[in-house]
């Protein structure tokens, strides 16, 4: 095998999505790193893959690095898999990849199943440009803080959600992003794959009448409202109000200039000399 480490995608619900290359790689490497050995052994047994498994998850990935590097120094080949889908996509692996790059260790990706791209296509929204955010913070106020940073973004937004967070997620989207077209996909690639489409309020009404279980992908249409840019005179009104609240002048000028396509130096001279 030419590479030392293989980042391998595995099915997210349909075993027929396992690629021939993934099976071949997992059979040939010396060690397989996985989130949960009890979970992964079922997948490997199905494809008659008998290999050494080592747990590698978000709670031990830092402490595992030295051991993994020692295996590579012993000329062992490794594969990294997650419980389902593609490693590093809202799953562990980023720390490992950074270490491999820093140590000039050759690695590659064996692509395959993931949840975000099918959900994007199923939504019917613009798929040419999009932003994948993954899971939002658990606290509702933190959810809304994050969404506030995205509300002016005009590209499609993609989020992951657990069943326990789903209602709160849709409510937060409704509170911050408003009446936008939204799609929720569940059980992607499985027998009962379903996508619900509507406004956040319509989706909340649907969800209140059903049992919520499994992982969800939420896709939200980008902001279609044309943002009104402030003139220098309007920017001055905002500047004067925010300065009274204790905002730092330089930080505020930088923000106003960036948000309104104004020349920062010209705006500074205008605001500070009038």
UniProtKB/TrEMBL annotation:
Residue ranges of every copy of the Tetrapyrrole methylase domain listed in the record: 4-203
CDD domains hit by this protein: RsmI (cd11648)
Keywords attached to this entry: Cytoplasm, Methyltransferase, rRNA processing, S-adenosyl-L-methionine, Transferase
EC number: 2.1.1.198
GO MF entries: rRNA (cytosine-2'-O-)-methyltransferase activity
Name of protein: Ribosomal RNA small subunit methyltransferase I
Gene3D superfamilies named in the record: Cobalt-precorrin-4 Transmethylase, Domain 1, Methyltransferase, Cobalt-precorrin-4 Transmethylase, Domain 2
S-adenosyl-L-methionine listed as a keyword: yes
Pfam family, one: TP_methylase
Chief localisation class: cytoplasm
Family statement: Belongs to the methyltransferase superfamily. RsmI family.
Reaction(s) catalysed by this chain's protein: cytidine(1402) in 16S rRNA + S-adenosyl-L-methionine = 2'-O-methylcytidine(1402) in 16S rRNA + S-adenosyl-L-homocysteine + H(+)
Entry GO terms, CC: cytoplasm
HAMAP family linked: 16SrRNA_methyltr_I
Location relative to the cell: Cytoplasm
Function: Catalyzes the 2'-O-methylation of the ribose of cytidine 1402 (C1402) in 16S rRNA.
């Amino acid at each position: 095998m030419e590479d030392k480490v293989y980042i391998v995608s595995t099915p997210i619900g349909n075993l027929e999505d396992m690629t021939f290359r993934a099976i071949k790689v997992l059979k040939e490497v010396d060690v397989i790193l996985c989130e949960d050995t009890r979970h992964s052994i079922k997948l490997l047994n199905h494809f008659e893959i008998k290999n050494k498994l080592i747990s590698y998850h978000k709670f031990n990935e830092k402490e595992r690095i030295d051991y993994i590097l020692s295996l590579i120094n012993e000329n062992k080949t490794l594969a990294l898999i997650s419980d389902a889908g593609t490693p590093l996509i809202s799953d562990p692996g980023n720390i490992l990849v950074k270490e491999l790059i820093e140590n000039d260790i050759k690695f590659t990706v064996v692509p395959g199943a993931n949840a975000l791209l099918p959900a994007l296509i199923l939504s019917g929204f613009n798929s040419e440009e999009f932003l994948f955010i993954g899971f939002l913070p658990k606290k509702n106020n933190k959810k809304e803080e994050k969404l506030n940073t995205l509300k002016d973004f005009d590209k499609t937004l993609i989020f992951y959600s657990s069943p326990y967070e789903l209602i709160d997620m849709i409510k937060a989207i409704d509170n911050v992003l408003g009446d936008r077209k939204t799609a929720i996909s569940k059980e992607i690639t499985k027998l009962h794959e379903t996508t619900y489409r509507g406004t956040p309020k319509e989706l909340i009404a649907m969800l209140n009448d059903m049992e919520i279980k499994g992982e969800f992908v939420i896709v939200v249409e980008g902001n279609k409202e044309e943002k009104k840019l402030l003139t220098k005179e309007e920017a001055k009104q905002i500047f004067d109000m925010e300065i009274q609240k204790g905002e730092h002048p330089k930080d505020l000028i930088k923000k106003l200039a960036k948000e309104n396509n104004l020349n920062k130096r010209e705006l500074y001279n205008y605001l500070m000399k009038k």
